[in-house]
Amino acid sequence: MAKPVVFVLDPYHEDAVALLQSTEWVDLVLPSDPRRASWHRDADGVILRSETRLTADDFAAAAKLRIVVKQGVGVDNIDLDAARRAGVAVHNTPALNSEAVAEFSLALAFSLARRVAEVDRRVRAGEAVRRSETLGLSLFRKTVGVVGMGNIGRVAARKWIGACEASVVGYDPVAPADAWSDLPHRRVATLPELLEVSDVVTLHVPLLPSTRGMIGAKELAAMKDNAILVNAARGGVVDEKALLEELKKGRLWGAVLDAMEVEPPTLEAYGDGLLAMDNVIMTPHIGASTRENQSNSGIAVVKTLLAVLEGKADVPGKLV
Ligand SMILES: O=C(O)[C@H](O)COP(=O)(O)O
Fold first, then answer.
1. Ligand 1 center to residue 300 CA distance, Å?
2. Is 318 within the bounds of a domain?
3. Ligand 1 within 6 A of 204 CB?
4. What is the pTM of this model?
5. For a designed S-S bond to 137, which of 24, 113, 125, 132 qualifies (C-beta 3.0 to 4.6 A apart)?
6. Whole-number pLDDT of residue 36
7. Is there a single domain that holds both residue 258 and residue 111?
């Protein structure tokens, strides 16, 4: 019998690739292989991250495809309805990325609060930066509003409490009533209630029709003076034009974005806008990108894929 053909569509950690390479019963095609171009024709299974999009056309064309596994949690790059129609199973690896993404969201907030990127730029440009001109913002015992009370938001909340003795406010219209029952926090029923009190607003929601543009002009205007916005979730959640307009008023402390509409962020897209602002930090969607996480998550993805191809029942992370 022919071996199932597995395509790795986006770059994966070497540990995950090694596990696939040592699995003799699959035929493996890596992203650098010229055969990648023919994945629609040949793939029984594919693994990807958030770089490749899988559209309805892809699913319609992928004649043999049985299983797609997405590393991490967000699946906005995959047309799940089309997968369902085509009878293709889609899995992700929820929770595994949480520590890395949450850690990075705090790192971004601290960097902005203490103006690390801005001052580093000035030092490198040869400026003798005076300490008296670089006062930062302390985050100790401030109020942190966590939008999205899922796995990542939960870990972020725990870290804020541990690192800063933060008062955490959570907002999530779909999380179960007992979410975070083990964490000290105040849950609010509406986003305005969270925005009104938060010194840091940190976004940990998936990109869905209901969350697209959820932070727009009205929400930004409702944030406290000197508040920080952290988006390590998905670009479409924040209205970037409205953010730029609000930042130009100089009322907010600033914004840190690891997710944006144009990824990776370019000078062409943002050079005259958000990247012209000293109080913006932009990083190219690297929240999940630690050595440890990429190895662990990548291996989990491969194990999920192999289990489905072997016909095992109840393989975790099944979305479709
Ligand atoms: O969806 C996720 O969990 C994160 O955004 C990570 O995506 P990535 O694997 O493309 O970094």
1. 14
2. no
3. no
4. 0.95
5. 113
6. 93
7. yes
Choice from 49, 76, 295 to test ligand 1 binding pocket (greatest atom count within 8 A of CB): 49
pLDDT of residue 88: 98
Quickly list DSSP for 54-109. Answer: B-HHHHHH-SS--EEEESSS--TTB-HHHHHHHT-EEEE-TTTTHHHHHHHHHHHH
In a domain, 257, yes or no: yes
**Annotated catalytic residue, options 158, 234, 240, 246:** 234
Cα of 289 vs centre of ligand 1, distance in Å, is 8
pLDDT < 50 regions, the chain: none
**Do 247 and 254 contact (CB within 8 A), yes or no?**
yes
pLDDT tens-digit series, residues 181-221 = 999 999 999 999 999 999 999 999 999 999 999 999 999 99
User: Mind listing the pLDDT tens digit for each residue in 222-251?
Assistant: 999 999 999 999 999 999 999 999 999 999
Domain residue limits at 239: 98-282
Sign of CA dihedral 107, 103, 236, 220: negative
Given 263, 291, 292, 310, the catalytic residue: 263
Could you tell me if the CB of 297 is within 6 A of ligand 1?
no
Residue 1 has what pLDDT?
79
Whether residue 234 lies in the annotated active site: yes
Is 74's C-beta closer than 6 angstroms to any atom of ligand 1? yes
Tell me if 301 CB under 6 Å of ligand 1.
no
Strand order in the sheet with 228-231: 186-188, 167-171, 143-147, 200-203, 228-231, 254-257, 280-282
Q: Could you tell me if residue 317 is inside a domain?
A: no
Domains in the chain, number: 2
Q: What pLDDT sits at residue 108?
A: 98
Which pLDDT score is estimated for 234? 97
263 noted as active-site residue: yes
Q: Is the same domain home to 128 and 70?
A: no
Q: Note the helical H segments in the chain.
A: 14-21, 39-42, 56-61, 80-86, 98-113, 116-124, 151-164, 191-197, 217-222, 240-248, 267-270, 291-309
